[in-house]
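anyone seen this seq b4? input:
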Amino acid sequence: MRVGAADEGDDAGLDRRARVPALVAEAVASGARRLVLLSAHGVGEAGDDHPLKSAERAVRDSGVGWTILRPDWFSQNFSEAFWRQGILAGALALPTGDGRTPFVDAEDIAEVAAAAVRGLCRRDRRRGPLELTRPAVRRRSAFGSVRRGR
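predicted toks r here
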């Protein structure tokens, strides 16, 4: 099912901001009792025009249990995607200055998402989204951590 398209063959009519809210409404109408959304780090501080803002709002306002996951950069960026060529070439240049950025393994994100689907990891309005990160930025550790989001 394609939600928000003006015509099945017309991607130009697709309202990208309406897709997740429409999916959430359809899921709840069909009996879903819990929703889990993979969002992104920094969405809480982003402007209202950020496309994930409407997605998060729809999940929060759905009336059912929800968990919103906001992971930092994926560790796989070094080996599977964006930065692989730079790594293989021996030089990776990023505009980070002296800043530190945590990375989290996609498998760890999947474990948290699976726990959320099973109801083992629930969030509500008081506690907000789960910011998924690695504590290596703050201390040396091989394990991921979860900190409260905004």
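The helical segments are 16-29, 51-60, 84-89, 106-117. The chain has one domain: 11-148. kinda curious what u guys think
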